Amino acid sequence: MSEDKNHIEILIAKVITGQSTYDERIAVEDWCKESAENQQVFDHYKKLYAIDKGHFTVPDLAIDVDSEWELFRSKVSGAKTIEMTPKSSANWLKVAAAILLIFASTFIIYKYLFSDSLIIHQTADAKQEYVLPDKSIVTLNANSSISYTSEFGSTTRAIELKGEAFFEVERNEKLPFIISAGDARVTVLGTSFNVSTTSSATEVVVSTGLVALSSQSTDKKIELGVGDAGKLSSQGELIQYKNEDTNFNSWKTGLIVFESTSLKKAIEDLNKVYKSSISISDEVTATCEVTATFDNQPLDSVLKVLTSTLDLTIEQTGQDIEITKAGC
C-alpha cells in the first residue's frame, strides 16, 4: 500500500466510523470535491461499511473476490495526498487495515447488491415531487437527490438525502422512516417536515408530528414537535429552537409571506425560491422593511411590486440583479 493511499484510507476510515476531527472531515470533503471519481470511491467505502454493520441482507455469491477487489482498489491509485499530523497515525493505520479487510470480503456483495437495486431520484434546475414505495411523498428542491434500496417500504425505510427536501411521511409505527443527511440522522414514524443539508449544517423544520434529529457520530439527540426546528452543524453542535421563518418551505409551496420583513431577509427568501441572483448595494439602508404576500407569482411581478412599494432602483446585468437605491 503506498503512502498516498495510507493517508486517504486512514482519513476515510476515521470519517465513516465517526472518529474524525472537524479538520479531517473537511479534508476528506475537499478531496471528494476534487473529482467525481474521488467522490465515487468515498461513497463505495461508506456503503460497504454500512453493509458490514448489518444494514442490509445479502445473498451468498460464488465470485472471485480478490480480482474484483483489486479492480475497485485501482480507482484509488490516482488519489492526491491529504496531509495529516503523525499523532496516532500508526493506530489509525491499524483501523484502516481492519476496515479494508472488511471491505475486501464485502465488496463483491456490494457490486451485485447495489448495481440494480439502488434507486436514485435527482433534480436539476427545478423542484420535483416523488411518491415513494411506502406512499410517502417527497418534494425535492432543485439540485438535490434522494437514494434508497429496492427493499424500501418492505424491510426498511432508510433514505439518503443530499440538498433539500420536504417530506410527507406515511405513518408506520413498525418501520421508522430514517433519513441520512451528512452526519445527521432524522427518524420519524409519520409526519411532515423540511430537511435542508449543506456542507456547514443540516436543518430540520417540523410542520406536523414529531421528529428525532441525531448525530450519527455521537449520541446527541433532540426531539422536535410542531413549530420546532433543529440544526446539526458540521462541528457536531446540535441545537433546538422555535421556527420563526414563515417561508421555510416557500420553495415548495410558492407562497411567500413578508410581514415587516427586512429587505435583506426578503431578498434571501426570493433568491432561494426563484434560484435568482439578487444583491443589495451597500448604499441601501438596512431599515427597509417589506409587508406583502406573493402566491406563485413570477419573479418579474414580485420585483415590480417591491420596486413600486419601496421606491427601489434596480440594475440588471444578464442574470445578476442589484438593488442600488431605495426610498425607504
Question: What do these coordinates show?
Answer:
The N and C termini lie far apart (about 65 Å). About 30% of the residues are buried. The radius of gyration is 23 Å and the shape is globular. The chain has a 7-stranded mixed β-sheet with strand order 1-4-5-7-8-11-12. A 7-stranded antiparallel β-sheet has the order 2-3-6-9-10-13-14, with no helix packed on it. A 3-stranded mixed β-sheet has the order 16-19-18. The chain has 3 domains: about 5-115, no CATH class; about 125-240, Jelly Rolls (Sandwich); about 250-325, 3-Layer(bab) Sandwich (Phage tail protein beta-alpha-beta fold). α3 packs across α5. The chain is built from 8 helices and 19 strands. A hairpin with a 4-residue loop joins β13 (about 230-235) and β14 (about 240). It is an alpha+beta fold and about 325 residues long. The longest helix is centred in the first third of the chain and has 29 residues, at about 90-115. Mean pLDDT is about 80; it is low at about 50-65, about 75-85 and about 105-115.
Largest sheet: 7 strands, mixed
Number of helical segments with 4 or more residues: 8
What's the architecture of the largest domain, going by CATH? Sandwich
The parts where pLDDT drops under 50 for at least 5 residues are: 51-66, 75-87, 104-116
Tell me the CATH topology of the largest domain.
Answer: Jelly Rolls
Number of domains: 3
The structure class reads: alpha+beta
Strand content: 25-35%
What is the CATH C-level name of the largest domain? Mainly Beta
Domain Protein FecR C-terminal: 256-323
Keywords: Membrane, Transmembrane, Transmembrane helix
Organism: Fulvivirga lutea
Pfam family, one: FecR_C
